[in-house]
Amino acid sequence: MKFFIDTADIKEIREAAAMGLVDGVTTNPSLVAKTGRKFKDVLVEICDVVKGPVSAEVIATTYDDMMREARDYAALRNNIVVKIPMLPEGMKAVRTCAAEGIKTNVTLCFSATQALLAAKAGAAYISPFVGRLDDVSTDGMQLIGEIVQIYDNYAFDTEVLVASVRHPMHVHQAAMLGAHVATCPLSVLIQLCKHPLTDVGLTKFLADWQKVPK
Ligand code: G3P
To answer: How far is the CA of 57 from the centre of ligand 1 (A)?
Structure first.
């Protein structure tokens, strides 16, 4: 299972990369806005740190404008994956990108049939937002199970990229269900390392070490 980091903050990316937990990066307009920096500057800097796929989201909502942005981003670095919203116009852009060899990540997916369409259009990744589904009392992880099964039924190459991950249980369940990727904020990656018994055990070992004659 691959771990991507869901941030546009270069410091966070470097920290997670130092732990070996960054197979790729996902960004979105909200995450980029938090940096207060120009998008392309941020994108190029991320790609210079991370060799795996780096998702850059288009802002356009029409086919022609999406394609303009997609070609522009894809020309910046060869590991850029263009993030395209799950819209009819978006599906046209995903098809063209696939034909041109530009990888896409279809975002804002909230249903299994949306995921099916994205795979048929030739998306490299589908991003179902599990946390936002949970927020509206719908089981986000059930959707992951359904998409994994559908992709398996028809041997689609599209990878299931679990997004809007809010806590370690999302990662645990995604792994149990066979999702290809989980994209997590740095806080979740750090939470994954933690266990109260690890802390208790370490405190005891360090205290006992003081009793060892030196
Ligand atoms: O990159 C998309 C995504 O992971 C959003 O997460 O927490 O804003 O729902 P969140």
So the answer is: 12
Q: Residue 119 Cα, ligand 1 centroid: separation in angstroms? A: 21
Q: Is 146 exposed, middle or buried (0-12, 13-18, 19+ CB in 10 A)?
A: middle
3-class SS of residue 161? strand
Is 51 assigned a catalytic role? no
Domain ranges of the chain: 2-209
* Closest CA to ligand 1's atom 9: 164
Q: How confident is the model at residue 170 (pLDDT cuts 50, 70, 90)?
A: very high
State the average pLDDT over residues 13-36: 96
Looking at CATH, the fold of the domain delimited by 2-209 is given as: TIM Barrel (3.20.20)
Taking residues 76-91, report their average pLDDT: 98
pLDDT at 99: 98
Overall residue count recorded for the chain in this entry: 214
Residue whose C-alpha is closest to residue 27's, from 15, 43, 16, 44: 43
3's enclosing H/E stretch is: strand 2-6
Reported pTM:
0.96
